[in-house]
Design a protein that fits this description.
By secondary structure, the protein is an alpha/beta fold. Helix content is 38%, strand content 25%. It folds into 4 domains: 143 residues, Nucleotidyltransferase, domain 5; 36 residues, no CATH class; 93 residues, Nucleotidyltransferase, domain 5; 68 residues, ATPase, substrate binding domain, subdomain 4 (Actin, Chain A, domain 4, Alpha-Beta Complex), CATH 3.90.640.10. The strands form 5 sheets. Strands 3-2-1-8-9 form a 5-stranded mixed β-sheet, with helices on both faces. A 5-stranded mixed β-sheet has the order 12-11-10-16-17, with helices on both faces. Strands 13-14-15 form a 3-stranded antiparallel β-sheet. Helix 3 crosses helix 4, helix 5 crosses helix 12 and helix 6 packs across helix 7.
């Protein structure tokens, strides 16, 4: 017990944004210390992490997606913001916790993990159990929209409505917050990954060109948009011809990529409207002035703020460094735990 206590004192308290696409780790008093893709390379047909001078996790594993030999798979163990593979998620968390402590297997930190607001009690317990088996001695949860709101500096403790829209890889989180709690929210299991899938489908149907997930992601980043651009863009896209079976490239315009992603964007808009319709009148009145704040990697999509402003009639702003908003929020909670503890959950409450 004394030994465990000493190891606890030596460890860093960590906040983890365990995302479908990326995992970002924040240390108490230090800010963000790690940011890598949520990808693990395993031996095919097993849950054994592939070792190559250490476990192949994060950026090294992502580079293998679509490029591995038959004996290796690059896996994303989270789907739609929740655990799809428990053992591999444990390996992912273990990698980040150890890396945050210089590779030590002895340190057992206290950890705050951000989770989607719509996950079930069973899914919450799965996150806690995975984090504990990965080396955490104490695990608390925080809902992603709350962490994002704290991370971007919204006045969540005041009796005033603040609206956050956090679009990640697996989920889009929409919430209205007041007095340190979420008043009304929507957790949509559709976000950046669905945009990528839509691009893959478009390229296959229109051009008979098969492209991979990473190529679709690059297309989205480089020419994707949610609103007409002042000057539309064009990009060469390379892939495999589905008819001839040979490598081929085509030129694609931003207008067609925007149209390909339209269904996903419409679903996100419906989620935002649904949340607004359920917002109490006084808080809704606050939003006329405070508007909507965008966070998450999806906030970087060109013209998203203009499109949402048109659809909702509210002012919309993109947070500074939206990709790290959730992780930064966990860091603020760690630094101000005495005042912000009410925003945390232990995840073990009954449904």
């Amino acid at each position: 017990m004394i030994f465990d206590h000493i190891l606890g004192l030596l460890s860093k308290d960590l906040g983890i944004d365990l995302g479908t696409a990326n995992t970002i780790v924040c240390a108490r008093g230090e800010g963000i210390i790690l940011s890598e893709p949520s990808v693990v390379a395993v031996r095919k047909g097993t849950n054994r992490v592939w070792m190559d001078d250490g476990p192949v996790v994060g950026e090294r594993a992502k580079q293998m997606i679509g490029r591995t030999p038959g004996s290796i798979e690059a896996i994303r163990p989270l789907k739609n913001g929740v655990i799809a593979d428990f053992e591999i998620t444990e390996a992912l968390l273990s990698y980040f916790i150890r890396k945050a402590h210089g590779g030590s297997r002895l340190i057992r930190p206290r950890v705050i993990v951000a989770v989607p607001s719509g996950i079930t009690t069973v899914e919450k317990r799965a996150v806690i159990n995975s984090a504990e088996r990965a080396g955490a001695r104490e695990v608390r949860l925080i809902r992603e929209p709350m962490a994002a709101a704290i991370g971007v500096g919204l006045p969540i403790t005041e009796p005033k409505g603040s609206m956050i829209v956090d679009i990640g890889g697996g989920t889009a989180e929409v919430a209205v917050i007041s007095l340190s709690d979420i008043v009304v929210s929507s957790s949509l299991r559709i976000a950046g990954d669905e945009m990528n899938d839509a691009i893959v489908k478009h390229m296959k149907e229109v051009y008979n060109l098969q492209i991979g997930e990473q190529t679709a992601e690059r297309v989205k980043i480089q020419i994707g948009s949610a609103y007409p651009l002042e000057e539309e863009l064009c990009q060469e896209v390379r892939g495999m011809d589905t008819l001839g079976g040979l490598p081929r490239s085509v030129n694609v315009r931003s207008e067609e990529i925007r149209e390909a992603m339209r269904n996903t964007m419409e679903q996100i808009v419906r989620g935002i409207r649904s949340t607004l319709e359920r917002t109490p009148p006084e808080l809704a009145a606050d939003l006329i002035e405070s508007g909507i704040t965008l966070a998450g990697g999806g906030a970087l999509l060109r013209g998203l703020d203009r499109m949402l402003a048109r659809e909702t009639g509210l002012p919309v702003r993109r947070a500074d460094d939206p990709l790290t908003a959730v992780a930064r929020g966990t860091g603020v909670v760690l630094d101000q735990i005495d005042t912000l503890w009410p925003v945390l959950e232990d995840g073990r409450e009954s449904a």
